[in-house]
Specification:
single chain, alpha/beta, Cytidine Deaminase, domain 2, five-stranded mixed beta sheet, binds zinc ion
Amino acid sequence: MASDRGPSAGDATLRRRIEPWEFEVSFDPRELSKETRLLYEIKWGKSQRIWRHSGKNTTKHVERNFIEQITSERRFHRSVSCCIIWFLSWSPCWECSEAIREFLKQHPRVTLLIYVARLFQHMDPRNRQGLRDLTHSGVTIQIMGPTEYDYCWRYFVNYAPGKEAHWPRYPPLLMKLYALELHCIILVP
Ligand SMILES: [Zn+2]
């Protein structure tokens, strides 16, 4: 891909990319936007093909929408193995954490890795417990850092020509504080 162009016109994911402003607002660790954004990729079985898409809250939280959507796919059955990566602007609330655990229980060959830009109402003990329960169920949760912002920009954002490396540089201090807080949440027995 030439660096002086935007995402290649031949890129099948082009129409699924989000606009730069959407990415910048949704995933800014300093913003407290109401909307939750999900960028996700799915790698099916041994295939090297990666399926990328995005989602938002509707009347339901985006995590539940994802689960409903993927479980309604014809090819998605109990024995299917796949690796899912989520980039979420907010960490899951406790109710979504429960729904995710149930989904993983029903689909034991699915692995889930979650990167979050911000921790959602993280002083609420239920949300803290929800995150702990998720990690106990085998889900890896991490705070997005520069590597993830760069990655999302390149693969999920419809950046302008020549702006391939212009992913937003947010203050690293906030990412570190969120990472420390997440660490404390997860470490408490
Ligand atoms: Zn939720």
